[in-house]
Amino acid sequence: MPRKVLAICFWAICPLLLSAYEAPEDKEDIFASRACPAFLVFDSAAFLSDMTIELPCHCKPEETHSVVWYYQKQVGFMNTKVLTDFEGTTVVESSKVGRGSDLRSRFSIRLFSLLIFRAQKADSGHYICGTASGEFFYGYDVDVQEVRQVLFPWSVKQRTQVQEAEPLSIKAEKFQVFTRYEPWSKCDRCDVRGEQMRGGLCYVKSIHLHVRYQRESDTEASCGSSAVPRQFGLSGSGYGAKLEVRNCHTPCPPKPTTSPERQALLKFLEFDDRSPLGVTIHFHNHPRGSDLVLTCPGAKPQYAVAWDRGSAPLHRSQYMEGLNKTSRVFIDTGNHLHFRPVRLEDKGSYFCWLQGELAAEIRLGVYLRLGRLRQIWDPESVYALQVILACYAGISALFLLTVMVRFIWQISKEETSADINLNLL
Question: Is 0.70 topped by the overall pTM?
Answer without folding.
Answer: no
